[in-house]
Write a structure and sequence with these properties.
By secondary structure, the protein is mostly beta strands. The protein has one domain (2-125, 133-251). 11% of the residues lie in helices and 41% in strands. The protein is built from three helices and 17 strands. It has helices at residues 6-11, 49-57, 91-103, and strands at residues 2-5, 28-29, 36-42, 69-75, 108-111, 113-116, 119-121, 139-147, 150-157, 167-176, 178-181, 191-194, 197-205, 207-209, 212-218, 229-238, 244-251. A five-stranded antiparallel β-sheet has the order 2-8-9-15-14, with no helix packed on it. A four-stranded mixed β-sheet has the order 4-3-6-7, sandwiched between helices. It has a four-stranded antiparallel β-sheet with strand order 13-10-16-17, with no helix packed on it. The longest helix has 13 residues, at 91-103. The N and C termini lie far apart (37 Å).
């Protein structure tokens, strides 16, 4: 496990589990209980990261996928000057990890690093089951594709747990079993398989009216990046706060 100071990092339930195909009606919908968002902060330049990604790949055919847990794999960029430039890395993903560290009052960020519903998760990825979070009542998040690059989002907030303040939605394209051949750095000579790599994200405000928050999300166009298949992860959070309130997603072949 490699740690970096925050300053150095900146410098250095309906159809949810289906693999859907073009032409089929698609709806991704959470239940009223919170679906866990499991985030892995990782890098192709980190020799400790492939075992964590291999463990995460065990979710691919797990019945918990999309219904109990939505996995996303953010590649950070603070390894890029240490021998290998990760083509999936983004300073935005590094900033997200740094924001979590600030909320936890940590002075460092590291890879591989798991975050479960906004909380640092150090249960170990060597064995055991997959996390499901606390499953508290949140609200129902429903996502429908409108076109091949746009989504309709509706978040019906649980009446017993009303929300105040602004909400936002984030949608992420995911690549599954995405392959990289590493030629330099700590993983030189390895062929890495990324199970739920984030390819692109977009975030925008939700419009709240009488307990229902809505938005139409325009997705960025993406190359397939040698991905065996594509998925979509969608989650709702408070504006400016990375901690998710609800999540959903699924496989999609637009």
């Amino acid at each position: 496990m490699m740690k970096f100071p925050i300053w150095a990092a900146g410098a250095l339930t309906l159809f949810a589990g289906w693999a859907v195909h073009a032409g089929e009606p698609v709806v991704w919908r959470s239940g009223p209980k919170q679906t866990a968002l499991l985030e892995l902060f990782t890098s192709e330049g980190c020799s400790s990261c492939p075992p964590a990604e291999k463990w995460l790949s065990g979710l691919t055919n797990n019945p918990a996928l999309w219904q109990d847990v939505v996995p996303v794999e953010f590649h950070v960029d603070y390894w890029d000057n240490l021998g290998w430039t990760d083509r999936f890395a983004s300073p935005d993903y590094t900033a997200r990890q740094q924001r979590y560290a600030e909320l936890w009052k940590h002075s460092t960020v590291y890879t591989p690093g798991f975050v479960l519903n906004g909380t640092e998760w150090r249960m170990g990825f060597g064995g055991g089951g997959f996390p499901k979070g606390d499953r508290s009542i949140s609200g129902v998040l429903e996502v429908k594709p409108l076109t091949t690059n746009s989504l309709s989002v509706k978040y019906v907030i649980d009446a017993a747990n009303p929300r105040t303040g602004s909400l936002e939605v984030t949608a992420a394209w995911l690549g599954s079993d995405t392959v990289s051949d590493i030629r330099r750095g700590e993983n030189a000579g390895s062929r890495l398989h990324h199970p739920f790599v984030v390819l692109r994200t977009t975030t925008l405000p939700l419009q709240l009216h009488e307990g229902t928050a809505t938005a139409v999300v325009q997705l960025p166009r993406i190359p397939r990046e040698n991905s065996a298949r594509l998925g979509i992860a969608v989650w709702v959070s408070r504006e400016g706060n990375p901690i998710p309130e609800q999540a959903t997603g699924g496989w999609w072949a637009p």
